[in-house]
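The freezer alarm interrupted the setup, so I double-checked each line after restarting. Inputs confirmed:
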Amino acid sequence: MSDRYLPPARVRADSASPIQSLDDWRRVWMAAQQDPDAFWLHETRRRLRWQRPPTEGLVGNFSDVAQQPIRCFADGRLNITESLLDRHCEQRPDKTAILWEGDEPGDVRRLSYAELHAEVCRAAGALRRLGVQKGERVIVYMGMVPEAAIAMLACARLGAVHSVVFGGFSAEALRDRVRDCGAVLVITQDEGLRGRRTVPLKATCDEALEGEHGVRHVLVYRRTGAAVGWTPGRDVDWAEALAAEAPDLPAVICEAEDPLFILYTSGSTGRPKGLVHSCAGYLTWAAYTHEVVFDLRENDVYACVADVGWITGHSYIVYGPLCNGATTLMFESTPLHPDAGRYWDMVDRHGITIFYTAPTAIRALAAQGDAFVRRYDRSSLRVLGTVGEPINPDAWRWYHDVVGEGRCAVVDTWWQTETGGIAITPIAPATPTRPGSATLPNPGIVPVLLDADARVVVGPGEGRLCLSQPWPGIARTVWGDHDRYVSTYFSTFPGYYFTGDGCRRDGDGYHWITGRVDDVLNVSGHRMGTAEFEAALVSLDAIAEAGVVGFPHPIKGQGVYAYVVLQPEAAGADEAALLKAVNEGCRAVIGAHARIDLVQIVPGLPKTRSGKVMRRILRKVAEGAPEQLGDVSTLADPEVVAAIVAGARRL
Ligand code: PRX
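Predicted 3D structure, all chains:
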């Protein structure tokens, strides 16, 4: 078959991964499918340090999540930081655990496993002294500094539950999360730094916490040294607090199913949900998939350039790599600072062997031409990963041919905040790849496509992507709202976990993700709900109603298109000025990453007689396909459609 890329031939040599060929994959996938209990017990015992090893494996099924939450290794006891730190301090104390590259090229810090262990213990000591106890929630609102990972692990050391909030989120979004999880402490920094621009993290945090009495302390790491507001009694300096603590602190032993972290993510409706990940199941899944998918070797220099504010940063910068004793890069800057060669400059200087990024970055860099890539030596690279959104075949080929010089495996990894780790993906040394396909499920993942009538699609076909069996890393619940968890994921297709994505399966059983089929947007790999945008828009005085949809965008994957109905007082407003105003509104309510690309003033939204907005019409017009509107006869006011089509905006 053409356009099929065989895995590069290579020596097994120092690889620890059990899957090196397609036959291995078949055998291992079947083993996980036939006896998940035995399979995952074996994996976890070998990968994690347990105080009391579990005898129970994976329990639960998707027909009964309301009554019986999924559990994994439930009778085991451990503190996961012993698997990430203490164990490696015995085996590889001087190996670099975190390789940090700051905003300026060459501004580098290296923390060995021994140093990381000491810092985490000191930070945990400081948190404990500030009153943080097992099970309490701590928000981490930071940029990409090693201290963000240290903060996460310090919480885990105490059995406290961290919730990292991406540093781009607004004060309002931060406050919502602080309240929702009932945080007792926030860890932040004076300012973030990205592409020489500062991000006022402490000031935003102060604004978010105005009047919030549940937060007892704010621990502040000084990154830039800028003067920031200080609330005596509440605010505590990170360096001073850690200096008073010992470099060793016994870990608080937890139950396997205790929550490790909460991560908020957007859905079709309502406010973002706090997905809860468990200690042992999550870590086993993150570590297993990290080793197997990327074919991790002891001497790898592994770089995932995501942000710890998203699940990719949790699983594949912090938890998976550190559990595997890898050297993991943390990158503070942007792919364009100081120019479009920054990633490849880092590959060259650090000898990066595995590189993991998002299609948006690949498209943006490809658009700048090959010279930025070719300027640097990339011979160290072996595996190239992509995540977060569908990758178009052109971007895939550029990544493979130009960045990887045609000799690296490209792994297009499909997964979600909910799955905890990579679910459908090529396995670097084993799976023949095709540009645009996430290919085959990892062991433990059983994908099923369902058609519009909820019938299982057999063989090649297209449908809604569901997963039919639990795996160790699945999020266990929505914080404080198990009903919402059940209704969001398990009610559309009873008995299945519904991913929200559409998918095509070809004759070889390869999966081609077609994107979200719900009202979730994926802009530059950032997941956002149309409902969140709409709420931000109608909070503005000028706007009476708003309908927000996505449209294909050449770089961002999806752009954001807003249809707005003005309040009578705002009639005659200029669209360009309005676009500026709505973006200021979105920045204030959601965050700096939430930007609307196109705004169209409309006389009304297309609604059915029962008052439901027909989003299909908004989508088709935004996509530039008004000829595909279909039946509009059920609309209350069909005239509105003509006005919408006539006034459609283009980039
Ligand atoms: O639509 C899919 C898309 O990203 C969604 C999950 O977003 P989030 O929870 O923020 O996690 C992103 C990082 C894991 C999915 O429902 N998505 C993620 N990876 C891919 C993808 N779509 C296509 N191909 C991928 N490789």
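Quick read of the result. The chain has a mean pLDDT of 96.
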